[in-house]
């Protein structure tokens, strides 16, 4: 029996596209659906990240289990732990008698979707990492562990590598979440999908309004093709709906775009100029800083980084770190 309101309604058949890159992305997503590995979905707001998350869940062996979606940006900072991990009765003022399970417990046997994962407060991130690593959870105010069987899919419209470099997102948590990376291209980079999607939305509107079968004029479609779509598919759907209901005629020819259509995320900012400070730089600098802080003691540095001795030796070799000199400086030479 499924929990009411915690269902995934979309499948891969729900994704409308003719774009080659999108079809390759769908193929990859289908391939990893049957596994239990963590997935990080990246893309601008409005590109359809939850659509992919729900599709992966429905394609997986967990499809009969719950799909719990959480918008991390909508949770007040002080409520994060209780929302994610639950609490026991009397654990804090206002706690419900008998306690309450958190979203991870509710997702047991299914999938948890952590949308806007970059918004998780820094102080909560170590606890989240511990849950992901151990597959166990302890409610706030609780004294015993509860076993978990949950597949984790997260999404972000931020550039998490930048967040790691700024110290606002833990590197170890990033690695734990980003086992498989799916990056959804913005709508402006897949022009042929614009008309395909617009006609799909139009078809749905015609079906909802029995007896009315409107269509687009060539001018209307031309205007859609010229627009930049910083709000992506969500903006396109909004524009089509507005034009449909505002048109008194069968032929839709008038189009109105939202006044503010600037992309409100980090991906557009990085479209034209790729950052030179990549993940390998961050990882190498982290190792060097740990070695410097521990005066070259590799075992202590590995403990600080929460990685095994074998892993840190492998990374030292990979990055050609000179143990005679490099640990003294704790920074990557540019």
From TrEMBL:
Keyword Transcription recorded: yes
Keyword Ion transport: no
UniProt-listed Enzyme Commission number(s): 1.14.14.51
GO BP term (any one): regulation of DNA-templated transcription
Alphabetical keyword list: ATP-binding, Nucleotide-binding, Oxidoreductase, Transcription, Transcription regulation
Species the sequence originates in: bioreactor metagenome
Domain Sigma-54 factor interaction: 15-245
GO molecular function, one term: ATP binding
Name under which the protein is recorded: Limonene hydroxylase
Stored CDD domains: AAA (cd00009)
